[in-house]
């Protein structure tokens, strides 16, 4: 699968950025950021499921293609 919509890439990047922001947080700040990360992650999974259904592709294949596309276009946000 090579045709990954920009929206899926944007959603995956957002989820990874939210995950990276968890580093070093504790207590309520961690809990709040974790909720943001979970919401972003849920949005990615919903979009992947929709894309897989629309294209007749296995959701796991779509997810892997999205992750590869994101890795090719940016470094790990945890390093930034």
TrEMBL record:
Region (Disordered): 54-80
Protein name: Uncharacterized protein
Organism: Streptomyces achromogenes
